Amino acid sequence: MPEKRKKLYEGKAKIVYETEDPDKLILHFKDTATAFDGVKKAELKGKGSLNNTISSLIFEILHRHGIKTHFIEKLSDNEMLVWRADRFLVEVVVRNVAAGSVVKRLGFKEGERFERPLVEFFYKNDELHDPLVCETHIELMNLAPMEAIPVMRETALKVNDILSKFFKEHGITLVDFKLEFGKLPDGSVGIVDEISPDSMRLWDAKTGEKLDKDRFRFDLGDLLEGYRKILKRIS
Ligand code: TMP
Ligand code: ASP
User: Residue 34: CB within 6 Å of ligand 2?
Assistant: First the structure.
């Protein structure tokens, strides 16, 4: 069992600890739910464990398909072991169906399926509310290495194929999701952070019921009940 040492960083939903191996970190998933860049906040007992479990399961699926991520192993209910990464300051969003900011920003109708998946980059900055950026901004502001941009786009689309199929088999529509990337200790570009119902929109394929964090964002129902339904179906 890796040893939890110094606390490196505490974010809204996770705490990062160093271990005895300088290349490996422990992610602790907190029972905190936040939305709108931390403006809305609640403590929900059991959320950390659900997100850690779902995220670990998804990373394992991606590994089986040869996708590089920081995930090493699930350590306990609330903790996973990951490779230390030099994180890029962009969030990569893939959308299959219109929802959320793309509805507000471009006037798409919620629920409208795109002809092909839409990939967008956002600047990871809570104070600025994660604005949409182009490749030129990423280059000018040094948000990620230029050569990583096509890698992020292609990886995000591959992940979309894998996870769309996976969720569909379990009666769930993958509406959209967010990925973060960084440089791993072996120098390759890989997925970091979490892939959980906090960072994806997942709708029941039959009823359209929203099972993800939109339940919390817009008071649509018990958040953890939605997360439990997702976990039950996919495990
Ligand atoms: P958006 O429609 O608000 O731009 O969100 C797109 C997807 O990204 C959605 O699945 C939720 C996820 N997301 C995050 O994981 N973190 C964020 O800070 C935001 C704004 C969205
Ligand atoms: N991830 C952001 C937050 O936790 C925004 C959101 O998901 O709505 O505040």
Answer: yes
